[in-house]
Amino acid sequence: MTSGGPKKTRVLFIKYHEAADQQPLSKKAAEKLGVFPSLALGGLAAWVRQNGFPVGIIDLHVENLMPMDASDRVRHFAPDIVALTSKTLGWPAIIEIAQMVRQAAPHATIVVGGPHMSIYPRESMTWDIFDIAVVGDGEETFLEICERVESGSSLADTLGCVVRNEVGEIVQNPPRPALTSIDKYPMTAWDLLPVNDYHCLTLLKPFATMVTTRGCPWHCGYCSQVYSEKLRFRDIIQVVDEMEHLERHYGVREIVFFDETFTIGKRRMLQFGEEVQRRGLKVKFNIRARVDTVDRDVVRALKKAGLRSIHMGVEAGTDRVLKIMNKQITRAQTVQAFRVCREEGVDTRGYFMVGYYDATHDDVEDMIRFASGLGLDWASFSVATALPATDLYRIAQERGYVQGDFWKQYTIDGGGVIPQLETETFTAERLRAYRTKAYMKFYMRPDLIRRKLSKSEGRAELMEMLGGATVLGEIVKSTLLKRIPEVGLGKWGTV
Q1: Deepest in the core among 67, 148, 334, 489, taking most CB within 10 A?
Q2: What is the DSSP string of 11-37?
Q3: Which residue has the higher pLDDT, 179 or 361?
Q4: Residues in contact with 305: Cβ distance below 8 Å, sequence separation at least 6, in sequence order
C-alpha cells in the first residue's frame, strides 16, 4: 500500500449516455426526461481525491459526446486508471467507451463497476478490454486498486473484485465486507461536474442529486436493486451540510434525492426537516417514497423544509396484482398517501406498470382508471420488463416468456434486442397500446390541465406540459408505427 500525501497515479472517471437505459424512448424524448449527474462516479472521485489521487470526470451524456469524441481529452489527461460504472441496459455503451479508452490510453488500467457487476461479474470479464471489475460497494475496493497501481503491486487478490489471472482465467475474489457506516465518505465532487448543464423537464435549474441511504429491505418482484438489503443511513447533519454547500456555492434551486425510499424512519424525517429549517435553506427538494412510509406529520414537516414533489411507485390498481408483485402495499394505503400529499400542497408523481405476469385486461383497465382518479400531478407508465436478478425474470424464464438466460447472453455478446415481455394474456403490441392509452387518458383530462394552469407557477407548469407532450408524442408514435390491436380510448378514439 502507498503512504499518505499526493499521489502520481491519475484517475479518470467517464460517464456514459444514460438515454440507453430509457428504451424504447427516442434520444429526443429521453433528453426531455432529463440528464443527471452520476453520483457513483462523483462520489468515488471525491473519495480517491481526498486520499491524494489527481482525478477528472468526463460526462459524455451531458456534453452530448460519443465515445470517440472524447478520445483526445482522454489522451490529454493521460490517465493511469479509467473508471466506468454500468447498469445492465447500458452495458454495450460501456464496452464502446472501454474500447475507445484502450486506443487513447493503452497503458491505463480499465476498471468497471456498478449494478451490472453484481449480477454478471464473471460474464462481464469475458470482455478482455476490462482489466478488473468491482462487485458491490466501490469506495474501499476502488481506493485499494488505486493504491496498488500507485505502488506497482498486483491486483490479482484484491477483495471484492473479478480479475483475470496470469493464464487468462477469470477469478472472482472473496467479497469485501460492507462497512456499517457510510459517513466517512465525502460529498460528491461537484466542482468536477458541469452543474448548470444538467436538466430535467420538471425540475428547477440548476439542480443537483443526492442520496442519504444505501440498501433496501423490500423485495419487489420487478426490482433489480441487488447491492444490499441492509440499510445504512448518512448522518442528517452531513446531508444538510451538502444541501447548504450546493445552495451557497452553486446556486442550486432543487435537489433530487434518489434514495430508493427517502422516508424511512419518522424520527429521522422530522430531524431532517428541523435541521433544514434551522439553517434557513431556500433550496427545494423532491423525494422517492413508498406509500406505507408516508403520513401527515412527515409530509407536513418536509413541506415546511422545502419539499416540492414526492414520487411513489403504485404499479398496479388492484390488491391482487400488488400481491403478485410482492409490493407489500395496498390500494387503500396508496389512496391515503396521495390524499395527504395533495392536502398538504405537495406535487405528486405516481409510477405504474403495464403487463405484469398473471395480470388480466381488467387489471390493466383498473390501473388506468385508478391512476386518473388519484389526483396526481404527473404519472409515468411503463411496460413490464423482466430485468436481471428479479423474481419477474425468474418467472419469465420458468414460463418461457424469455429464451434461456437472456441477460447473461446479452452481457457476453455485448448487446442484443431487448425482448418485450409477452405472456399468455398480452402480446407486445397490445402492451404498447395499453401504455399509450394510459398516457392519453391521464394527461388529456381537462381537470388536470386546469389544475396545473391555476397554480402560481402556471407558466412553468405550461412549459413542463409542452415538454411532456414531446415524450407523449414519441410514445404514441412508437405505438402507431406498429400493428396495434384496438384497446378503446373512449372519447379519444382508438389506437
Answers
A1: 334
A2: EEEEE--GGGGSTTS-HHHHHHH-B--
A3: 361
A4: 272, 273, 274, 276, 277, 281, 285
Query: How far is CA 238 from each of CA 211, 212, 245, 267, 277, rounded to the nearest angstrom?
Result: 11, 9, 10, 17, 15
**Would residue 306 be called left, alpha or beta, if left means φ above 0 and alpha means ψ between -120 and 50 degrees?**
left
Q: Report which of 205, 166, 342 is spatially closest to residue 284, judged by C-alpha positions.
A: 205
Question: What pLDDT, in 10s, does the model give residues 205-259?
Answer: 999 999 999 988 898 999 987 555 678 999 999 999 999 999 999 999 999 999 9
Handedness of CA 48, 49, 54, 57 (dihedral sign): positive
Summarised one tens digit per residue, pLDDT across range 155-169 is 999 999 999 988 889
Please report the domains of the chain, with CATH numbers, ordered by start residue. Answer: 11-172 (3.40.50.280)
Angle between helices 361-372 and 428-443 (to 10 degrees): 20
Q: Rounded to whole angstroms, how far apart are CA atoms 411 and 269?
A: 40
Helix or strand holding residue 289 (H, E)? strand 284-289
Instruction: Report residue 390 as a C-alpha cell.
Output: 428479479
CB 236 within 8 Å of CB 263: no
